[in-house]
Amino acid sequence: MAKSPREIANERQDREQAALHHAIGYFIFWFSQLEFTIKARLAGALQLDEDLFDIIIGPYDFAMLCTVTEQTLMRGASAEVKKAIKKYFDQCRALNQQARIIVAHGSWTYAGARHVSRNTLKANRYFAKPEELRKQADIARRLMALMMVLEQPPEKKS
After folding, report:
1. Number of domains the chain is built from
2. What pLDDT, in 10s, does the model give residues 88-100?
């Protein structure tokens, strides 16, 4: 028996909704991995005992975690490494502003997230396509991998 146009439309809508839900989850997962990796790197730099990890590092929101880790890693670093550290954390803060805050605090519909800027009090719509959010997740994933080699200056090309 052939499907009715309504059934076909409902199936399409179900696929689109599932893609959006997957993209939101994918982003949240990779952003949380990035955040934990930064926390672990900070704990290592501070040589924290494991039983102090949550006590010392847990209270930081993401922006403060970035600031504290950035300042900690810069101590004693060369000018070249400091520049790389600053660039890295600028990218982390941008991801937080451009994606995490919107994902977490936006009002979601199947047309994307509606978010009101705290600075302008104007609403905008974001992530109308799940692919847009998956790209942000991929940025979080890339930043997570870079966290582990951050203090190493880039290799000089011969």
Report:
1. 1
2. 999 999 999 999 9
